[in-house]
Amino acid sequence: MTRILVVDDEPQILRALRINLRARGYDVQVADTGTAALKAAAAHPPDLVVLDLGLPDLDGVDVIRGLRGWTAVPIIVLSGRAGSEDKVAALDAGADDYVTKPFGVDELLARIRAVTRRLTATPADAAAPSALRVGRHTVNLADRTVTRDDGTEVKLTPTQWAMLEKLLRHPGKLISQRQLLHDVWGPEYQQETNYLRQYMAQLRRKLEDDPARPRHLITEPGMGYRYRP
To answer: Do residues 78 and 103 lie in contact, with contact meaning Cβ atoms separated by under 8 Å?
Structure first.
């Protein structure tokens, strides 16, 4: 059973989400502060976190950073902050998706299903090599690990993995922005190219020797991205 940690300081939202998620077979934990959320996640690691940014003790972005210090669990932000700066800050900190309040429960459930699919997706191209090189890193698609030449493991979030895997399984091929949005986030995503920019920047910071001058994770302006072996 998928365990979801819901973090929000509004009791009515916690109650509504607890009821709706449990009705659909999820195991639900709740927390109304950032501190409580971090403690709950450490004591009983969730499979997914739904997180409000406006918490009474910690900013939600700080909670994301706290979680990302030790886990790659998917994080869906649920916030009344609609500004692009807030979205960028949350995505840069390691969030996997961003839903703006007020929200529809059906939309949130769809986002949860989409993130869950990224965790269980079966590679479409079984013939592709299982281990590929990106700079000084070996990416093993079979066991989903990234290892530096010095043996250090690099942690990727599920969304970072989904985007990287899509590119690496089609070496040299241009993958369009629309195709990446569709395959990584879902068919309802068509215009959110800022997601692609944010996650590509994150991947380059983790994998490229010089993120400002990438050699392997290449942007084709206005068209899409490609992996250059």
So the answer is: yes
